[in-house]
Amino acid sequence: MPEDGAATTEVVSMRVICDACQRVYVAYEATHDAYGLVPAVTPHGDIRFDAPDAPLGAELDDLVHAVADDKRPYSNHNTDNLQAAEETSIDPSPSGEKYYLWGLTPCHHCGQFANGRLVPGTRRTVVRVPVVMVERTIWNSLAFAEKRARVRAALNRLWASYGYAPLPDE
Asked: Which residue in 47, 165, 62 sits closest to 100, CA to CA?
């Protein structure tokens, strides 16, 4: 642990070549050491962690189902839908960047979510990082209609990446 007594956990750090722009960036993944903690990473590598509690998980699940249920093919991607909703509930980083979950961070050079590959001759490296939790100050201050609108917008962005049309107007 650091001298200040703050908790730490392990993440996997890797130098990746972006398939879209061919530039190198650093990506992170969770390890088993981080059980129960979901890495939330900005494109420039600010790492925090998320551990959504049961009430938040239920709220996000309810919002996703309220927006996406019975709108095929959208409802076929429930895990992705919940992840997009969870990301939209997290406050931006201190520098104003969005946090992305589960190691799905865009290239900080071009912003694409293209699959990357390890830089030849490098390995995945396990590093210890402080456990700093994400915040949801903005989310917690929103009315239900505003939360629903944010989830709807997040789902439309996600589905556009699959090539799907946006949700029909409500």
From this structure: 47
Q: How far apart are CA 120 and CA 168, in angstroms?
A: 45
Q: Could you tell me the CA-to-CA distances from 156 to 14, 19, 77, 150, 162 in Å, in that order?
A: 30, 24, 12, 10, 10
Q: Find tokens 């830089």 and name the residue.
A: 119
Q: End-to-end CA distance of the chain, in Å?
A: 51
pLDDT tens per residue across span 108-149: 888 887 667 889 988 889 999 999 999 999 999 999 999 999
Residue ranges covered by each domain of the chain: 8-161
Q: Is the pTM of this model over 0.85?
A: no
> 62 by DSSP, 3-state: which?
helix
Which residue in 13, 38, 35 sits closest to 26, CA to CA?
A: 13
